[in-house]
Design goal:
This protein is α+β, with helices and mostly antiparallel strands and about 1150 residues long. It is about 20% helix and about 35% strand.
Length: about 1150
């Protein structure tokens, strides 16, 4: 139920400290720990991150998580400690049981030797190891249950201490030539093997000091103790407390605390979450991870070399890359989606939602209006705010109407649109007030009240100028030169163009930004620039933003901000950057009324998942480079084998080289560039490789050296590192000594063989030749006989003059004459007409002579004795003579059946073409003879309606004629489309397409149609990005038919559209909550002109051809369509279309 609250102060006030959230990262590249309990986090000098967990110590290089060597793990107890000394070495030690400590010097692990007095003791004794200083000035402190053992200047000393009184050993700090030993309850001074009490000067502190860090930036010391952070000019003199009262976990038996100073910024925690102190700003921020960890405190924190903040807890590890965005979400906000923002005064915001209105100010939320039933629903969505010259805030609130809020008097009221249409935008300019209500624009005054705001409709002035029948408006405002700007919704007239004259400019889009000498427009296609009469995509450093642009903003630093459906862009004049959820933004879709700059230079951004506040002072640019090192060169096939780099045998010519490219910044892709000198001409790039080993298989003999560098895409690459040179030796059979030996051997063998063959040749070569020739002749004769007898064609060998020497069996069958029965047969004997041969003989001999003796072909009708037949006739000379005359080979191929078949095909083709011409003529005539007069009828009806507006009865009758005519015209067009498809006159043209963007354009007018009926149309693009080859025209027809039907047959509820790629196919689904289809009608749903309701009982208009055309188009595209429906509950239609490449 709606609860408008018009009190001076809200009834619902929340402290928002816990509501402010940051975008934490749980899925850290290369990190996979076996336990969520993480007590300590450190970074070594190679950039690798180390973690002390309940399951032991592990480290990550950004690719994999590695355990300690087995021989180290075997000597450690179940509870260990982790630390880094002043020389950068990493230490691991037992915190319980036998005293053991190992350190890693980046080459090998070494065990540290403790004195024998320390190594003996109960296995239940607990230990704490701390190291201070470096090099020769290093001091080592080992605390046990009763003693403190100290190694200083190569000497060990043992001191008995009252550990129960002192509390846990927290930290060590150098103090001149001495050391301060910081325990939970007291501080001791170690000076030349003596331990004494130490007292701090300065102000009185509420508890003992646990940690001290020096800040070189300010030349001050910071002191952390239980529930306080202080600082002072000297290490023994704190003089100011900066923060207190931050301890959240008061029940833990152990204290978890830490203090780190990075470039003047102080990070600290003590049984709490992490805090950040910036004295330059005078601010303290709690980096609260409670929502992620569900824990009141963290165990450990660490800010690494890339300024990434790491948090360890009993619920796992998180990190955060930047504090540039502070995010606020549901509770205390009314809803996650913030739709409009306006800053009433410094740090005091007016926030609009789908379900209400709030004031957000420094720790409190004042709810002015609330309707929890509207959460996530756009019915009363507040789209934008506009402040008039008197300080009154006007706002658009869809069906709730035009809103007016007097901040000083805390008075709120609404005026609904008289046509019950959404009020989608409002703009105050001087005394004027422009109110946009879907397809109407009203010019009112800020002094008007109630319904009078909707009396002066100026829409027709706009429509007349553009010769448009209707328009849908998103925004109306003024340019600096006084002209009006009309931002339209989808328009068939403008589409993606621009219209301008002396009084106005109009574009299809969402927002604009006046740059004085030019104008930026946020359109449905992308970011466009209008300058010097040209309107095109704005190119920034060779890039174009081609996606829906919802909001534009120029801040006080001259940065241009661009709000899209996939994050916000920032252009500072040189560099274009994008912020999305990976960068810390609360959501990726920017709402067009919620993109504002505050008085303090902060940018307030409303998204579908909350509000983000961008703080430019915390926007650190990452100029860090990955830390790159090359590892050992190993053999792929024999990784454990030792070898010399300059003598690698050829049989081991597959090499692997490990490398480190350590970076935990996940703001961009990790790019590895390498070049194997001696093998590669150019650099090879790897994008986000899954392992840090390069493999080079089957290298040819030669000398090689690996060059490698790494970087984050868009940022500077690291310095190039180079491996040692290595040489793959030639195989034995290519080495000089082996080649010479083989040559000598072959020469000797050749001489012996030559002598032997010479003798054998004299004896047997002649006999062999004779046998070979005899066999060849026999084979040739057999082959010719087989061909002669098995040929399907008639074959005749004759001599000049026509005497037949031979004729094969096929010729006997073809001609109906066996020449063996004829004495001295001639070719003329084959024919019923003896003169036929002599009539053709002269012509054929001339053709043969002209061809130079090559094969001559002729199609002829021959009067064989077996009957008249169509014959392909071939004749050629043979290279032989008989009786002193030329010999000819003639081939007779019977093509009578083939000719008959061709004649029948020709007749069928002519009949089909005649039928097609008749059908095409009929369709063309119908298109002209029906549509031409019908368009005349429609035009005349519309003209009479415009001229006879005052005659309401006539206008109503003419409106019926116009609507009926349009239905008839739509039916005729559908019949023509169906006929073209069935006649195969519609070609399929595949085109590479960004399918998500294409569908979003097609859906724009459909969304407008749905909103007119009060329906909610939602589109989900599941595959990101989705590109493929489709026929755009047919796909658009399919979408319009299916979504159009869903809108037509739905009176309420939501229409859901889903687009994705599955198994190389386009998956498109439309689901509505409309009237549904009965099981009986589903069986004939694809029959032309069939509708479930008919006659006088028809509830919906239509020709019954939409689904038929859709089915035919899908079949043409080799796709599939399925329909699931229940009467009265709705319909779900699923379409699968193969992409062009498939």
């Amino acid at each position: 139920m709606k609860k408008p609250i018009l009190l001076l102060y809200a009834l619902l006030i929340f402290q928002i400290g816990h509501a402010q959230v940051f975008q934490f990262n749980r899925y850290i590249r290369g990190l996979d720990l076996p336990s969520d309990n993480v007590f300590e986090i450190l970074q070594d000098d190679e950039g690798k991150m180390w973690f002390n967990s309940a399951q032991g110590v592990y480290y990550s290089d950004g690719f994999f998580t590695h355990a300690l060597p087995d021989h180290i793990i075997d000597q450690l107890s179940f509870k260990v400690g982790l630390l880094k000394d002043g020389d950068g070495k990493m230490w691991v030690y037992n915190q319980i049981g036998k005293v053991k400590a190992f350190y890693w010097d980046y080459k090998d692990w070494h065990e540290f030797e403790f004195p024998k007095e320390v190594q003996t003791g109960s296995p239940e004794i607990q230990h704490k190891l701390l190291i201070s200083g470096q090099g020769e000035n290093r001091a080592i402190f080992l605390q046990s249950n009763t003693h403190l053992t100290i190694f200083d200047s190569e000497d060990w000393s043992h001191h008995r201490i009252p550990i129960n009184e002192l509390g846990n050993f927290q930290s060590v700090q150098a103090y001149g030539d001495s050391f301060l030993l910081l325990f939970k309850n007291r501080t001791l001074l170690f000076d030349k093997e003596q331990i004494s009490e130490f007292g701090f000067n300065g102000i009185s502190l509420p508890e003992s000091i646990s940690h001290i860090e020096y800040d070189a930036y300010r030349d001050r010391y910071f002191f952390l103790g239980k529930d306080f952070l202080a600082s002072g000019p000297e290490i023994d003199r704190p003089d100011e407390i900066h923060h207190s009262g931050f301890v959240r976990n008061t029940y833990s038996l152990l204290d978890y605390s830490g203090l780190q100073v990075i470039n003047g910024i102080v990070f600290f925690h003590y049984n709490s979450h992490l805090y950040k102190l910036d004295l330059d700003k005078g601010s303290i921020i709690e980096i609260d991870a409670f929502d992620e960890l569900k824990s009141y405190n963290i165990y450990n924190s660490y800010v690494d070399r890339e300024d990434i903040i790491w948090l360890g807890s009993h619920r796992g590890v998180l990190n955060i890359k930047s504090l540039r965005f502070q995010n606020f979400k549901f509770n205390p906000l009314l809803d996650d989606e913030v739709t409009a923002i306006y800053e009433l005064e410094p740090d005091k915001l007016l926030l609009g939602f789908n379900n209400g209105l709030q004031i957000f100010s420094q720790g409190t939320v004042n709810t002015l209006m609330e309707d929890q039933s509207m959460v996530g629903q756009p019915r009363n969505r507040i789209t934008n705010f506009s402040k008039d010259k008197n300080g009154i805030i006007w706002f658009s609130s869809n069906l709730e109407g035009l809103g007016r809020y007097d901040h000083k008097r805390n008075k709120l009221n609404f005026t609904p649109s008289p046509l019950d249409k959404f009020v989608t935008a409002v703009s105050a300019a001087g005394d004027s007030l422009f109110v946009v209500s879907r397809d109407r624009v009203y010019l009112s005054s800020i002094h008007n009240q109630s319904e009078s705001h909707f009396e002066n409709d100026v829409t027709q002035i706009f429509l007349d100028k553009l010769n448009q029948k209707e328009a849908y408006f998103r925004k109306v405002d003024k340019l600096g030169d006084g002209r009006m700007v009309y931002m339209q919704g989808g328009s068939n007239f403008l589409k993606d163009g621009l219209y301008e004259d002396d009084s106005m400019v109009t574009v299809v889009g969402f927002d604009f930004l006046d740059l004085q000498d030019s104008i930026l427009f946020g359109t449905e296609e992308g970011l466009k620039l209008w300058k010097n009469g040209e309107f095109d995509f704005w190119e920034i450093n060779g890039q174009q933003i081609k996606r829906p642009i919802y909001a534009l903003l120029k801040d006080s630093r001259d940065n241009i901000w661009i709000g899209t459906d996939k994050g916000a862009y920032k252009f500072d004049g040189k560099t274009l950057r994008i912020f999305d959820e990976r960068s810390g933004l609360s959501g990726s879709e920017i709402n067009r009324g919620a993109f504002k700059e505050g008085y303090d230079g902060k940018i307030y951004i409303g998204t579908q998942r909350g509000m983000s506040i961008y703080n430019p002072d915390d926007d650190l640019r990452w100029d860090y480079k990955p830390m790159v090192n090359l590892g050992e060169i190993n053999l792929v096939n024999s990784p454990e084998k030792t070898f010399e780099l300059d003598r690698i045998p050829y049989i081991e010519n597959s090499i692997r080289i490990a490398y480190d490219a350590v970076s935990f910044l996940q703001v961009s892709d990790l790019v590895i560039s390498y070049r194997l000198e001696g093998y590669h001409e150019d650099w090879v790039e790897l994008i986000n490789p899954r392992e840090n080993t390069l493999y080079f298989n089957n290298l040819p003999p030669g000398e090689y050296q690996l060059h490698l560098k790494a970087g984050l895409r868009g940022l500077e690459m690291s310095e190039e590192v180079v491996s040692e040179k290595f040489i793959i030796r030639k195989p034995m059979y290519l080495q000089t000594w082996f080649v010479i030996l083989v040559l000598v051997g072959f020469l000797g063998i050749g001489f012996l063989l030559s002598t032997l063959l010479s003798q054998l040749k004299k004896q047997g070569v002649l006999k062999k030749k004779i046998d070979e020739k005899t066999e060849e002749a026999k084979v040739t004769e057999d082959q010719f006989r087989n061909v002669w007898n098995s040929s399907q064609d008639g074959l005749v060998i004759s001599v000049e003059g026509g005497r037949v020497m031979f004729a094969n069996p096929s010729m006997t069958s073809l001609a109906g004459l066996d020449i063996s029965l004829v004495k001295d047969p001639t070719i003329s004997d084959f024919f019923t007409d003896p003169d036929y041969y002599y009539d053709q003989r002269t012509l054929l001999l001339e053709m043969l002579q002209q061809s130079g003796g090559k094969v001559v072909k002729a199609d002829m009708k021959m009067p064989f004795k077996s009957g008249l037949k169509d014959v392909e006739f071939y004749i050629t000379n043979l290279n032989s003579n008989a009786e002193g005359k030329k010999v000819f080979l003639s081939v007779f191929r019977d093509i009578t059946s083939k000719k008959e078949y061709e004649r029948s095909l020709k007749e069928a083709k002519e009949k089909a073409e005649e039928s097609n011409r008749v059908k095409s003529s009929f369709l063309a005539n119908m298109s002209h003879e029906i549509r031409t007069p019908l368009n005349g009828i429609l035009g005349t009806a519309e003209n009479i309606i415009m001229e006879r507006k005052e005659d309401e009865a006539l206008a109503n009758q003419l409106e019926i004629i116009r609507e009926s005519g349009e239905r008839l015209l739509e039916t005729i067009n559908s019949i023509l489309d169906l006929s073209k498809i069935e006649a195969n006159k519609m070609d399929v043209v595949f085109k590479d397409t960004n399918i998500n963007d294409f569908l979003s354009k097609v859906m724009v007018p459909l969304k407008s149609l749905a909103l007119k009926k009060g329906l909610l149309l939602r589109v989900k693009y599941e595959t990101q990005p989705f590109e493929g080859a489709i026929d755009q025209r047919y796909f658009e027809m399919i979408v319009n038919n299916l979504v159009g039907n869903a809108i037509k047959y739905s009176e309420k509820g939501m229409i859901k559209v889903l687009l994705k790629e599955t198994d190389g196919q386009l998956y498109f689904q439309v689901q509505d909550e409309g009237v549904g289809i009965s099981d009986q009608f589903l069986t004939k749903i694809f029959t032309p002109f069939e509708q479930e309701s008919s006659g006088y009982g028809r509830a919906y208009e239509g020709s019954g051809l939409g689904l038929v055309i859709t089915k035919n188009l899908i079949t043409l595209l080799k796709g599939d369509i399925t329909i699931d429906s229940q009467k009265g509950k709705g319909t779900c239609i699923t379409v699968l279309l193969p992409l062009g490449s498939n």
